């Protein structure tokens, strides 16, 4: 029976359910150095693998001589493509319907490509072996500039498919062309442009960046020859998908493959796909009969594993003189590198880029995307964003500012004028999405009032006058961004990975003493799932969150799930938790009715148990129901209290936010100061406000890094110029600005608890807010668009171009 000494509020507080700022339970082990990461794993007799990598971006391989390497003490084997051909693993399928070399087969296509895999008794011996492998290359012409990829005389990169004029996503019109993807009404859009009163057109590039999680990609593979079983511990964001991929390509029975993702030190999309390291470690373990560990170093991670973005977007908006938008037209040149290994749902070669109409009511729109090959690392992952959503948000939010500039209108006012109105939800966008809910006006108004927007604009006007008079060398920018995200892939009707529908799952087992375990198909990489998932269960079935253990990442015990990326955990797995909990609650109600000797309909839910309507003293707590489930269930009912749910969402969720960035830039040095950054997020029902704030802080820090410094840069011969944290900007607490967070709550109407995702919103909204601030600062000098990243040097270059510094 319930503790009658506690008030209702105290019982609710004890649960630590929805809305509670519950402290992260996983931090108990993380802050004491007790996390268990892949590299912590040490198995008896474990071997170590390391790669020989190509120094060339494009070259033919004339020969590979392993002899000297095999003489290095400790080196046991050197695998090349020829060895992998014997087991049909020299190439592997990518998530995007292409194939990719596991080890260089005849030629190399990007600097850092895997050429041979050296296996040794320790990592040092493996490295010595790598140095001793002698590879003879014949350099070939290199293609780095995406705008030259489709020229008639461009070097042909993929000789394996050069005559194949049909790819996974339709016709190809050049050997370096991967696909053309179009969406929207071209005729209607062209017609709107031909009669537009005002139109803007700008090439808006989103540079190649890299998710660079602190823990690099790694695995340990152990093949048990006696049982014929393969166990893989790895940094996998989607362990079940990895198991299925391994079963398909290694032709092993899926039940004999055990994939375990232990603690993961950040993923951000980098750990979704399958890398050559996983295949080589598995083959090496099968060959040697010993466990084999492969751990990337930082340079390898930055140069060879999945990049993000590299989208070159030509955006056009048509509008009336009063600033009402009438059409949007975007062409994207998408640089996918050497292989199309983008991690998107199968049918979406450009991800959800067609969210590019943003938060605005465009009557018509048309998008075309050309994917192309270049001599760069493959990838195209959703770096803390839902499949190309951050590219789309950047494109529309920059384009709206450029339109405002042309109209001589305030950018916030232009946004307000074109917002989708609350009464238009569910809203059907011109590019085919159904936005579930939103109240954009309220959110932007709250943001503008909080930052005292009008005062900022007055201050800016005064500063511009002072600059013109030569009284200051500093210019001030106010960056406004209003973004709409699309997260929670996804409804099986339009989202799958390799044919597997993108549902997610939860299995809850309650034990007799009123404690339990929830096993999930997702995998946290730092997002705090162990804390927040238990909160959903606590609110649903009245068992305190501290009595629920959340387990993820072991394919032997977890129900099949599609994993964690694209902020899909809360929208999809979060819903699976609620629906599994509701199945348990329904059974619990039957047990309580039986025990309290009333009809089920005579019971009502009350915080942590069932009460007989009208008889408040007759109450049975969930804790007591758990016990009863194992000893006195109604006749004919199976004992036990557990449920599993596979949740296929009816729609995506559409979180949104209003961000404002205030920045000062010294035109003589390019040095910027972020004076203020305000971020209002609406992710529907908030499970744990403290974790949401943490997610927003982390995402904004990454957005700051991308907008203000990150870029994977190449020289014209394909050398990676930014292969370490000396050159690739990873901000520390020293550079990171102070964040102000805020929120509104517009629940998702179709999600069982009304929650939308949040983990990626700050990356999606943060980048345009920073970039708009820089561009706004320079706009009065006649500039419309300055390409990211806005580092000191580029700011100074922009000032020079605009003639305000020497
Ligand atoms: O898929 P991923 O975990 O990266 O993203 P998410 O679903 O946005 O969740 C990130 C973290 O924020 C999780 O711990 C969620 O439970 C939490 N969250 C929340 O407390 N309330 C929301 N409405 C959304 C997420």
Number of strands: 35
Rg is: 28 Å
- State the name of the first-level CATH class of the largest domain: Alpha Beta
Please bin the fraction of helical residues.
25-40%
Q: Give the strand content.
A: 25-35%
Tertiary shape: globular
Helix-strand makeup class: alpha+beta
Distance between the termini: 80 Å
Characterize the main sheet: 7 strands, mixed
CATH superfamily of the largest domain: Aldehyde oxidase/xanthine dehydrogenase, molybdopterin binding domain
What is the count of helical runs? 19
Low-confidence stretches: none
Query: Which fold name is given in CATH as the topology of the largest domain?
Result: Aldehyde Oxidoreductase, domain 4
Q: In total, how many domains does the architecture comprise?
A: 3
CATH architecture of the largest domain: 2-Layer Sandwich
Bound molecules: cytidine-5'-diphosphate
| Strand numbers in spatial order across the main sheet | 3-7-1-16-13-14-15
Structure description:
The protein is α+β, with helices and mostly antiparallel strands and 806 residues long. It has 19 helices and 35 strands. The protein has a seven-stranded mixed beta sheet, with helices on both faces. β26 and β27 (516-520) form a beta hairpin. The longest helix has 28 residues, at 569-596. The chain starts with 7 loop residues before the first helix and ends in a 5-residue tail after the last helix. The structure holds cytidine-5'-diphosphate (CDP). The site of cytidine-5'-diphosphate (CDP) has 23 residues, from α14, α15 and α17. Residues 527-529, 532, 564, 567-570, 683-688, 691-692, 695, 755-759 line the site of cytidine-5'-diphosphate. Keywords: Copper, Metal-binding, Molybdenum, Oxidoreductase. Residues 32-141 form the Aldehyde oxidase/xanthine dehydrogenase a/b hammerhead domain.
């Amino acid at each position: 029976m319930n503790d009658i000494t506690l008030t209702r509020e105290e019982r609710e507080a004890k649960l630590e359910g929805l809305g509670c700022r519950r402290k992260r339970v996983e931090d108990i082990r993380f802050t004491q150095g007790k996390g268990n990461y892949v590299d912590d794993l040490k198995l008896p007799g474990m071997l170590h693998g390391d790669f020989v990598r190509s120094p060339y971006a494009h070259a033919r391989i004339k020969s590979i001589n392993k002899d000297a390497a095999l003489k290095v003490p400790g080196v046991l084997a050197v695998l090349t493509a020829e060895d992998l051909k014997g087991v049909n693993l020299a190439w592997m399928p990518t998530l995007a319907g292409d194939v990719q070399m596991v080890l260089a087969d005849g030629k190399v296509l990007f600097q850092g490509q895997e050429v041979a895999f050296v296996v040794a008794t320790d990592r040092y011996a493996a490295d010595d072996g790598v140095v001793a492998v002698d590879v003879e290359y014949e350099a070939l012409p290199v293609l780095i500039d995406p705008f030259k990829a489709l020229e008639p005389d461009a070097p042909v990169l993929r000789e394996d498919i050069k005559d194949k004029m049909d790819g996974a996503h339709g016709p190809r019109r050049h050997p370096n062309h991967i696909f053309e993807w179009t969406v929207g009404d071209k005729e209607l859009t062209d017609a709107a442009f031909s009669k537009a009163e005002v139109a803007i057109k700008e090439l808006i590039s989103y540079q190649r960046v890299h998710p660079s999680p602190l823990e690099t990609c790694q695995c340990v593979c152990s093949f048990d020859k006696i049982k014929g079983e393969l166990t893989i511990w790895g940094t996998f964001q989607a362990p079940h998908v990895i198991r299925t991929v391994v079963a398909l390509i290694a032709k092993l029975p899926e039940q004999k493959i055990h994939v375990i993702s232990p603690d993961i030190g950040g993923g951000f999309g980098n750990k979704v796909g399958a890398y050559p390291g996983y295949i080589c470690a598995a083959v090496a373990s099968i060959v040697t009969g010993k466990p084999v560990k492969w751990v990337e170093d930082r340079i390898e991670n930055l140069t060879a594993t999945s990049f993000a973005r590299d989208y070159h977007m030509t955006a056009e908006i048509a509008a009336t003189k009063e600033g009402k938008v009438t059409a949007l037209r975007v062409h994207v040149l998408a640089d996918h590198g050497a292989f199309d290994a983008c991690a998107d749902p199968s049918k979406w070669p450009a991800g959800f880029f067609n969210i590019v109409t943003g938060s605005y009511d465009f009557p018509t729109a048309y998008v075309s995307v050309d994917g192309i090959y270049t001599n760069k690392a493959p990838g195209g992952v959703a770096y803390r964003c839902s499949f190309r959503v951050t590219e789309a948000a950047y494109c529309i939010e920059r384009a709206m500012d450029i339109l405002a500039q042309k109209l001589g209108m305030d950018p916030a006012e232009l946004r307000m004028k074109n917002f989708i109105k609350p009464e238009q939800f569910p809203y059907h966008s011109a590019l085919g999405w159904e936005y579930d809910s939103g109240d954009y006006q309220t959110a932007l108004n709250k943001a503008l009032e909080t930052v005292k927007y009008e005062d900022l604009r007055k201050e800016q006007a005064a500063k511009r006058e002072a600059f013109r008079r030569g009284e200051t060398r500093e210019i001030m920018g106010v960056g406004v961004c209003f973004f709409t995200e699309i997260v929670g892939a996804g409804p099986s009707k339009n989202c799958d990975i390799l044919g597997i529908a993108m549902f997610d799952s939860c299995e809850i087992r309650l034990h007799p003493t009123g404690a339990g375990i929830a096993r999930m198909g997702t995998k946290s990489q730092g997002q705090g799932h162990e804390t927040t998932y238990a909160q959903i269960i606590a609110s649903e079935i009245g068992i305190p969150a501290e009595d629920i253990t959340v387990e993820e990442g072991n394919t032997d015990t977890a129900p099949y799930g599609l994993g964690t990326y694209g902020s899909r955990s809360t929208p999809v797995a979060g819903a699976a938790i609620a629906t599994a909990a509701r199945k348990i609650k329904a059974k619990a109600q039957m047990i309580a009715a039986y025990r309290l000797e009333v009809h089920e309909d005579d019971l009502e839910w009350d915080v942590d148990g069932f009460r007989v309507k009208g008889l408040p003293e007759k109450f049975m707590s969930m804790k007591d129901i758990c016990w009863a489930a194992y000893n006195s269930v109604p006749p004919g009912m199976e004992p036990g209290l557990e449920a599993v749910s596979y949740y296929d969402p009816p729609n995506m969720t559409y979180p949104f936010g209003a961000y404002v960035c205030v920045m000062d830039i010294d035109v003589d040095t390019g040095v910027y100061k972020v004076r203020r950054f305000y971020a209002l997020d609406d992710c529907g029902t908030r499970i744990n406000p403290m974790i949401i704030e943490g997610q927003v802080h982390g995402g904004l820090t990454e957005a700051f890094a991308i907008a203000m410094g990150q870029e994977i840069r190449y020289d014209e011969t394909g050398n990676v110029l930014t292969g370490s944290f000396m050159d690739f900007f990873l901000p520390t607490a020293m550079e990171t600005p102070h964040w102000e967070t805020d929120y509104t709550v517009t629940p998702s109407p179709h999600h069982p608890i009304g929650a939308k995702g949040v983990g990626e919103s700050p990356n999606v909204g943060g980048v345009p807010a920073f970039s708009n601030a820089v561009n706004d600062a320079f706009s009065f000098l006649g500039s419309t668009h300055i390409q990211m990243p806005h580092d000191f040097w580029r700011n100074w270059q922009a000032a020079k171009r605009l003639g305000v510094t020497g």
